[in-house]
Write a structure and sequence with these properties.
Blueprint (H helix, E strand, L loop, with lengths): L2 H13 L3 H11 L6 H8 L7 E2 L2 E2 H6 L2 H7 L2 H9 L3 H16 L9 E3 L15 E3 L27
Parallel strand pairs: 3-4
Antiparallel strand pairs: 1-2
Helix pairs in contact: 5-6
Length: 158
């Protein structure tokens, strides 16, 4: 943070106006350049780092099934040691195809499946998985019922 940006921040706090308007006025009146470093830092976005039990996603992708099974809980470890079925491998193949067909900065297409018992593997991170037949009722919020708040206790039921 250079001396110009410190001056800008101090003036911004003293006058208490919108930063964008303030910077435009300051560049026109005084001739100071707009803070490029502030604009660049806004453009830089931080993405969530995925990790599972202390192992980063990059390292997880390098593991084979036996090493991955050691990290997982007992139920998933049992499934991986006994082997996945044909439909699970077909599902993974569709996920890989959707990820390959997507552009560099695009999200992959949603892959719908009936497989609710599929174990989430590291290569599935970043994909969107939908469910064909929803087996639960999605929550719909309506008006609150009687007894939801303290004020509704005193309303007669008629």
């Amino acid at each position: 943070m250079g001396p110009q940006s410190k001056l800008t921040v101090v003036l911004y706090w003293q006058f208490g106006c919108d930063l964008g308007i303030f910077l435009n006025r300051l560049t026109k009146v005084v001739g100071l350049p707009v803070m490029e470093d502030a604009l660049e830092s806004k453009k830089k976005r931080t993405f969530k780092k995925y990790s599972y039990r202390g192992v980063d996603l990059e390292n997880l992708l390098d593991l084979n099934n036996a090493q991955l099974a050691e990290l997982m809980h007992a139920r998933a470890r049992r499934r991986l040691t006994r082997g996945l079925r044909r439909k699970h491998y077909a599902f993974l193949k569709r996920l890989r195809k959707a990820k390959k067909d997507a552009g560099a900065l695009e999200k992959p297409a949603v892959i719908k499946t009936h497989l609710r018992d599929m174990i989430v593997l590291p290569e599935m991170i970043g994909n969107l998985v939908g469910e064909f037949s929803i087996t639960y009722k999605p929550v719909k919020h309506g008006r609150p019922g009687i007894g939801a708040t303290h004020s509704s206790r005193f309303i007669p039921l008629k």
